[in-house]
C-alpha cells in the first residue's frame, strides 16, 4: 500500500509539473495567454499600475508588470473574466517576482505602451491621456474590440475629429470598421467616416496610403465604399457643371465682358471662345477627381486650370483691357459662385456602407 501511495504521489507531482508548464489555449486572435511560470523578473509599470495590493499581474510582451484588480477587469471585459476563471479552475497560483505575495500572472501579447494606453480607458484608477496619436487611438480601439470592452470605442472616437483635416484616410479607416451596414443602426463610426470621406474629396485618387501598421490590416471591403463615394461625387459635380454652363454664359452678371471677346470661337453656341471650351473641359476633369469646393477656391494663376486662360486669351477688349487679364480677374468671382454648384452636387451623394456586405 505504501508503494502505491508513493507511486500516486510521484504521478501527481509529474502532472503538476506538466500543468505548470502548459499555456492556456488562445482566447483571441492576438494570442494573449495566461502563463503558469515567471522565469524572469518584470519591471513595474508606471502609476497607477504599480500597486502591489492588486490581485493579478498583466505582464506585457516586453516584460513590464501591470498590477490590476481581477474584479474590475472582469466586469469591464468578458474575455478577461473567462481567462481569470479558467486560470482559477486550473489552480494556477504564481509568485510575483516583485511582491512577496502569491499572484496570478497573465502574459500579454501587447507591449508596455499599448497595454498602458488600453488599461487607462478601462481601469478607473488610470487617467486618460490628453494627447493621443492616430496609432494610439487605433491601438485602444483594437484592444477594446479584442477584449470586448463596451463603450471605449465610442468614448475615444471624439479624439479622432482633430485628425480629420490632417489624416482623413486614417480616420476613415478606423471609423468605417465600426460603421453599421444600415442607417437604422448608425453608430459613431458612420458619422465620423462620412466626415472623413467628405474631407477626402479634396484629395485625388488613388489616395496616399498612411505608413501605419494598423492600416495594413484594414480590409479592402471597408475601403471600397469610400472609393465608390468619391467617384460618385466626381460624376455628380461634372454633370452639374455641364448642366449649368450655358446659363452661366448667358448671364451677363457672371461673364459681362464675354460678348466683347474676339478670341477664336467654334461650334453652334454663340459667344463661346475656344479657351472657354478648353477651360470647361479642364475644370470638369479637375473636379471629377477632386470634387470639393475647396479645390476650386484654392486655385491661383499658376495652376494648370488657370493657365488655359493665360495661354489662350489673346484678344483686346473694346475698352483696351487684355482679355486674359479680365478673364483671370473674373474667374475668381466665378469660382466663388461655382462652389455652390459643387456642394449641391456632392450633397446628393451618400456614403453607402451597405455595399460592404459580402455576397
TrEMBL record:
A family per Pfam: BTB
InterPro entries reported for this sequence: BTB/POZ_dom (IPR000210), SKP1/BTB/POZ_sf (IPR011333)
All residue ranges annotated as the BTB domain in the record: 54-85
Superkingdom of source: Eukaryota
Gene3D superfamilies, per the entry: Potassium Channel Kv1.1, Chain A (3.30.710.10)
Name recorded for this polypeptide: BTB domain-containing protein
Highest classification ranks of the organism: Eukaryota, Fungi, Dikarya, Basidiomycota, Agaricomycotina
